[in-house]
Design goal:
Structural class: alpha/beta
Number of strands: 8
Helix content: 40-55%
Bound molecules: 1,3-dihydroxyacetonephosphate
Largest sheet: 8 strands, parallel
Order of helices and strands: EHEHEHEHHEHHHEHHEHEHH
Number of helices: 13
Distance between the termini: 17 Å
Strand content: 5-15%
Strand order of the largest sheet: 7-6-5-4-3-2-1-8
Oligomer: single chain
CATH class: Alpha Beta
Length: 258
């Protein structure tokens, strides 16, 4: 069975003391018994990872994630952080291919594919983000766009490696805009992605892959998104910066409402 996951992508927000307070509030308020089946991931800025790893160390449902990594293991790449460094800080996940990396830092699927491999070599589970821009949806190209993103970055992975991945569908027009994809729009793309995975790796792998939705998910729309059969949780930006909102989204997972 695929795992329900809610991940908080803090992006370039919080100074160290704010990050500590946020992580401590989440740890204090999280009722682990309610989310027995789920994983919760916190992805703070690199500079706060080590401190946050100490705060969440004894909460077995809370995992640490990086927001990016470099494709090389080490070397003269000023300002960059490798997958091995993230792993040594206690991270078990890394967000790769976020649309902000694609848009502002020129990342393409070939490069993101290399980062995915670097992450896997270092025992990090990639959260691979993909999604169409507004103009692509408006001309009905969204299925082609996400299909191309999956194929170029991921589909030459071995099945055993692909199974370590989490996929996050984040329509670019919904990120930070307050405009959420409707549950039906999101479900349609998630089902399409699962079918692509089934065609490439078989039904069992498709059934086991967690596909998260991201883009203006909030406490008041999370439950209806998470109720869709192919939406296995969320990758949360803005609403992950307040412990109460983030946890309300966590508790909107169907497994936490039973
Ligand atoms: P928002 O939740 O702020 O729209 O951001 C979504 C996102 O980009 C998560 O990675």
């Amino acid at each position: 069975m695929r795992k329900p996951i809610v991940a908080g992508n803090w992006k370039m927000n919080t100074n160290l003391s704010e990050a500590v307070a946020l992580a401590e509030n989440i740890v204090r308020q999280l009722n682990v018994a309610r989310i027995d089946k789920a994983d919760i991931i916190l992805a703070p800025p690199f500079t706060h990872l080590y401190r946050v790893s100490e705060i969440i160390a004894n909460k077995h449902k809370l995992h640490l994630g990086g927001q990016n990594c470099h494709q090389e293991a080490n070397g003269a790449y000023t300002g960059e952080v490798s997958a091995g460094m993230l792993r040594s800080l206690g991270a078990s996940y890394v967000i790769l291919g976020h649309s902000e990396r694609r848009q502002y830092f020129g990342e393409d699927d070939v490069l993101i594919g290399q980062k995915v491999r670097a992450a896997l070599e270092n025992n990090l589970r990639p959260i691979y983000c993909l999604g169409e821009k507004l103009e692509e949806r408006e001309i009905g190209k969204h299925f082609n766009v996400v299909s191309q993103q999956m194929q170029t970055a991921l589909f030459d992975l071995e099945e055993a490696d692909f199974r370590k991945l989490v996929i996050a569908y984040e329509p670019v027009w919904a990120i930070g805009t307050g405009k959420t994809a409707s549950p039906a729009q999101a479900q349609e793309v998630h089902a399409f992605l699962r079918e692509l995975i089934a065609k490439r790796y078989g039904a069992a792998t498709a059934e086991n892959t967690s596909i998260l939705y991201g883009g203006s998910a909030k406490p008041d729309n999370a439950a209806e998104l998470f109720d869709q059969p192919d939406i296995d949780g969320g990758l949360i930006g803005g609403a992950s910066l307040k412990a109460e909102d983030f946890l309300a989204i966590v508790y909107a997972l169907p497994c936490a409402r039973r």
